Amino acid sequence: MGNLCTCFSPKTPVKTKKPTKRLQGNSQTAPNSSNRWTRVRSTRKDTHDALIHEQALAAAILFRQHQQQNGSDSGSFPFDRSISLRYPNGSGSKKTQLPRSSSSRARSLTDPLLQPHQLVNRDIKLDDLDTNHFVLVHGGGFGAWCWYKTIALLEEGGFKVTAIDLAGSGIHSFDTNGVTSLSQYVKPLTDFLDKLADGEKTILVGHDFGGACISYAMELFPHKVSKAIYVAAAMLTNGQSTLDMFSQKAGSSDLMQQAQIFVYANGNNHPPTAINLDKSLLRDLLFNQSPGKDVALASVSMRPIPFAPVLEKLNLSDFKYGTVRRFYIETSEDNAIPITLQESMINSSPPEKVFRLKGADHSPFFSKPQALHKLLVEILKIPST
């Protein structure tokens, strides 16, 4: 405080030279001032020009030395204005420039940024596989749109991809409140499988409630399904419904229960027709590790979940559903179907193999698209035993 007071205390007057009249006066009061000031400015300008010339000469010398050290005498140097820093070709730097992601989140080691062709062994030809056709089935409230990253990665890798909009979902025109059975809800998927040529097989990938949907389809068309992959999905047993599965983790503080908003299109005296999810809780429930742009996409694209199919118990047999090879991909940071519930389903009906996506939320096609893609291709390549 003392120092502060000292700064503002009166100081002893200091004598200063008065400004010369050649700076403030005019040519009439100081006849020779104009020429003298012109000479001063000229001298300063000459000094400034000389300094710029020396700096430019030094920069040119350094630039020439850099070219000679890198074996380039062409006089040109590549510069990419799309990024602020690039290591030039042949610079000897150990760092490499990776393709840039449009996501603002930090990329973890569990979601490496790889090109699709890096995820397929070069000694394996797509034509030698049982099938290279992925059929992607979304979860409750989602649509085919949620797979956009997965579709792009798979197609770039040379695979065939079909993403299904279930009844009343995505851009399917049917009113969600009018879906009264699981068979009606899954009809777009079963119609697609029914129209496949004899002998043509697919790999079904189901997410969330889509797990129950692909199980239903596997019971009808086991000969058209080579493998089934459950991604944070409802993998039910015979006689079980999706509601039965979710009831295993019911609790007063359950985030899923807090987010549910029941729709009574037939009146409050009748059972609910659909379930909406509170948009203010979507990020915490489904996208807690996902980029903000994907959360925004989901918030304007998600539709209500038909209620009747959630209540319906599955009829699954060993000689149909049981003949299809099943694989499960766990999501470790899932708030909608927690890892404990996923493991409970796995223990109740063990699949052939289980994989885990570290750091993935309930929507790994958003939060871990590269890692999910890698696992899908890895499962595809697993040979028959």
Can you walk through the features of this model?
It is built from 15 helices and nine strands. The longest helix is centred in the N-terminal third of the chain and has 37 residues. It is an alpha/beta fold and 385 residues long. Strands 2-1-3-4-8-9 form a six-stranded parallel β-sheet, with helices on both faces. InterPro entries: AB_hydrolase_1, AB_hydrolase_fold, MES/HNL. It comes from Populus deltoides. Pfam families: Abhydrolase_6. Keywords: Hydrolase.
Q: How can the largest sheet be summarized?
A: 6 strands, parallel
The pLDDT mean sits at: 78
Distance between the termini: 82 Å
User: How many distinct beta strands?
Assistant: 9
- Strand-pairing-aware structural class: alpha/beta
Q: What are the low-pLDDT stretches, counting only 5+ consecutive residues below 50?
A: 1-43, 72-105, 116-123
Rg, Cα atoms, Å: 34 Å
Helicity range: 25-40%
- The secondary-structure element order is HHHEHEHHEHEHHEEHHEHEHEHH
Q: State the shape.
A: globular
List the strand order in the largest sheet: 2-1-3-4-8-9
Quote the beta fraction.
5-15%
| Count of helix runs | 15
Quaternary structure of the protein: single chain
How is this structure best summarized?
This protein has 15 helices and nine strands. With about 375 residues, the chain is an alpha/beta fold.
Layout of strands and helices, then pairs:
Elements: H1 2-8, H2 21-24, H3 33-69, E1 133-137, H4 148-156, E2 160-164, H5 182-185, H6 187-194, E3 202-207, H7 210-220, E4 225-231, H8 242-247, H9 255-259, E5 260-263, E6 274-277, H10 282-286, H11 292-301, E7 305-306, H12 307-311, E8 325-331, H13 339-348, E9 353-357, H14 364-367, H15 369-381
Parallel strand pairs: 1-2, 1-3, 3-4, 4-8, 8-9
Antiparallel strand pairs: 5-6, 6-7
Domain AB hydrolase-1: 134-372
Biased composition (Polar residues): 23-37, 90-99
Region (Disordered): 1-46, 87-112
